[in-house]
């Protein structure tokens, strides 16, 4: 039951950043982005997630500082994290013992870069259930032709009154990994945020993976 509460809490946690809804792509996807070569990091469309095995352990300290700065558009103003088994405020209303490894960084303009991986192993069947649960949420739309991020994989653009959020999530081996960037609406372009989030997610996958490259 604790693992199930954690799965539901992690989904709810995304909802606190924006009005949540996620549209999911199936076992694979194709790139439809036009990333700028001048931006730091590797675009998700250029990163092959096939065969990447994410470790279900703490990974936050391995995320490069330059990747955090690129995700936020500047140096972080604050950061926080929690690990498996720690009491944590999973949402603004829900406090429980966590069953994931999570970290977030906040920029001076309020931009938030987040990433987390479930501590319990996730089977492909359970991952498809998570995909189905995400599809039932409201307020977001699919990132059409988004590059795959694990398999199965999900990608979403969410809008709220205060900003935009782009998120990717997927199954890597037996680990369910999620990464996102939420940015203020003012001055935020969808294409730029989508590309920036893809590059952020590549950095996160590398930090959480047992593979170099």
Put the structure in a nutshell.
This protein has 213 residues and is α+β, with helices and mostly antiparallel strands. Helix content is 26%, strand content 28%.
Provide a descriptive summary of the structure in words.
- By secondary structure, the chain is α+β, with helices and mostly antiparallel strands.
- It is built from 4 helices and 10 strands, in the order αβαβββββαββββα.
- The protein has helices at about 1-15, 65-70, 125-135, 190-210; strands at about 25, 75-80, 85-90, 95, 100-105, 110-120, 140, 155-160, 165-170, 175-185.
- The strands form 2 sheets. Strands 1, 2, 5, 6, 7, 8, 9 and 10 form an 8-stranded antiparallel β-sheet that branches. A two-stranded antiparallel ribbon has the order 3-4.
- Helix 2 (about 65-70) runs antiparallel to helix 4 (about 190-210).
- The radius of gyration is 15 Å and the shape is globular.
- The chain starts with a helix and ends in a 5-residue tail after the last helix.
- Mean pLDDT is about 80; it is low at about 1-35.
Structure keywords:
single chain; 213 residues; alpha+beta; 10 strands; 28% strand; globular; disordered N terminus
Question: What are the SSEs and their pairings?
Answer:
Layout: H1 2-17, E1 24-25, H2 65-72, E2 76-82, E3 87-89, E4 95-97, E5 100-107, E6 112-118, H3 124-135, E7 140-142, E8 153-159, E9 163-172, E10 175-184, H4 190-208
Antiparallel strand pairs: 1-8, 2-5, 3-4, 5-6, 6-10, 7-8, 8-9, 9-10
Q: Provide the gyration radius in Å.
A: 15 Å
Largest sheet: 8 strands, antiparallel
Instruction: Give the helix tally.
Output: 4
Mean pLDDT: 78
- Series of H and E elements: HEHEEEEEHEEEEH
The end-to-end distance, rounded to whole angstroms, is: 36 Å
